[in-house]
Amino acid sequence: MCSLEKRGRLFILKLTGDGEHRLNPTLLDSLRSTINQIRSDQSSSQSVLITTSDGKFFSNGYDLALAETNPSLSVLMDSKLRSLVADLISLPMPTIAAVTGHASAAGCILAMSHDYVLMRRDRGFLYMSELDIELKVPAWFMALIRVKIGSPAARRDVMLTAAKVTADVGVKMGIVDSAYGSAAETVEAAVKLGEEIIQRGGDGHVYGMMRETLLREVLVHTIGEDESGSSVVRNTGSKL
Amino acid sequence: MCTLEKRGDLFHLTLTGDDEHRFHPDTIASVLSLLEQAKSQSTKGSVLITTGHGKFFSNGFDLAWAQSAGHGAIERMHQMVKSFKPVLAALLDLPMPTIAALNGHAAASGLMFALSHDYVFMRKDRGVLYMSEVDIGLPVPDYFSALVVAKVGSGIARRELLLSGKKLKGEDAVALGIVDSAAHDSAEGVVEATVSLGESLAAKKWNGEVYASIRRSLYPELCRMLELTANNLATHNH
To answer: What does the record give as the reaction this protein catalyses (chain B) (predicted)?
Structure first.
């Protein structure tokens, strides 16, 4: 399901095995408990998290086949991913996604929930597939998209053309930070970046709080459940 | 005044005649009715392309009509501003991709009409974008600003559009991220390019309701101002 490695002060979380790493309840629970483990590590306020995967996929999204057998599992998976993303947003350390394979829909959201997105350019794409497969896009996904993708045209391309965004295109769109020749190079670069960040120093707790402020709009959606699934942004009454 | 034609998957909305295609209560009602028609006839793979004839895409509200009422001018302006909102709402809610093919100048509400489309193509050789309000001393309605904020990302670009009174040529508009393309000389060239884009989008055979729902969720603040919330969306049968 997933493994955790500690390399110096770096935490390397890996979605293991050669499958699609579909975000089913079991994997989501496993990821959440691993993140909790990381959070409760003594050195966590001076660490960095790198998330990566084995095989052809970073994650191909929710387990839709499972959801078809039992519709209540859709709600459960969404709720678990929301909690996981909320945990990532409050994590007291910088986070790096080393995207070494396809990241679709919920899988793309998982990648984009990290502070840095490093990606291989030789294979794989980011793909918000919902338009192509007639799937509803949760309001909180859209909140993350709006916060993480600055250009209105890029947002439109990602969401309204269901673009399959390769690394170099992702860099141009401002979604991906940097692109590399292979999976190994991507992970290596993530490790190097992680080490540079650690060298810079700084208090992870402050970092986590600042990130929460930056991604406040996403947290509003992830913490409060919106059962209707509507895309109306809740007005919290405060203006930053 | 304006026509709607269906050619294959593509709906062509055209502002006809060689005039400035100013928005006046009658044109507003016409455009709204044609958009409703397109919506009611939409199927998977439908796409809308909007263009105009002559030198202007649209030069904004019919200020002469407002002024001809003397003391009633302000009331007429308010009426036009209010009745124009549903036009932008209809575009934001349309269950199909929308493309504006600017044959010429787009100013004020005419520019807002253009920007309410998913894709905006301009001519390279002619035509400008112009938010004239700052020059003529007219306040900009709140939903106009919300549209600019929703569609134009950079602070500098928003300033150039709303505050500078500049007439932006195609090249500038592309550089500022306001329009998608200004690569073609001639109105025919732009229309051809938009038809090409339209056909590639149509080939995806997307579900229009899903498309419109995702589009609305890209612009929550704008939709709120246009009163397009989940609650009062008309449901539609295909």
So the answer is: a (3Z)-enoyl-CoA = a 4-saturated (2E)-enoyl-CoA; a (3E)-enoyl-CoA = a 4-saturated (2E)-enoyl-CoA
| DSSP assignment letter at B25 | H
In chain B, the residue whose alpha carbon lies closest to the alpha carbon of A161 is B201
Nearest-CA distance B93 → chain A (Å): 13
Helix (H) or strand (E) holding B222: helix B220-225
CA distances from B63 to A19, B21, B36, B74, B170 (A): 63, 12, 26, 10, 26
pLDDT in tens, chain A (240 residues): 999 999 999 999 999 999 999 999 999 999 999 999 999 997 878 999 999 999 999 999 999 999 999 999 999 999 999 999 999 999 999 999 999 999 999 999 999 999 999 999 999 999 999 999 999 999 999 999 999 999 999 999 999 999 999 999 999 999 999 999 999 999 999 999 999 999 999 899 999 999 999 999 999 987 654 444 443 333 333 344
* Cα angle: A192, vertex A196, A197; to 5 degrees: 115
Give the span between the Cα atoms of B46 and A50, in whole angstroms.
Answer: 43
Q: How far apart are the first and last CA of chain B?
A: 28
More confidently predicted of A225 and B125: B125
- Would you say A106 and A61 are in contact if contact means Cβ atoms under 8 Å apart? yes
Prediction pTM value: 0.92
> A12 with A98: CB under 8 angstroms?
no
CB of B205 less than 8 A from some CB of A: no
Q: Say whether B126 sits in a helix, a strand or coil.
A: coil
The token pair that represents B55 in the structure block = 């030198």
The answer to whether A130 contacts B97, with C-beta atoms less than 8 Å apart, is no
Measured in residues, chain B has a length of 238
* Residue reference for tokens 């579909």: A22
What is the distance in angstroms between the Cα of B158 and the nearest Cα belonging to chain A? 12
CA B172/CA A136 separation, integer angstroms = 37
Tallying the residues shown for chain A, one arrives at 240
Please tell me if residue B139 touches chain A, with a CB cutoff of 8 Å: no
Question: Of A234, A218, A237, A226, whose CA–CA distance to A90 is shortest?
Answer: A218
The Cα A235–Cα A114 span in angstroms is 25
DSSP state, residue B235? P
Of A132, A135, A152, the CB nearest to B151: A152
Beta bridge pairs of residue B10: B7, B47
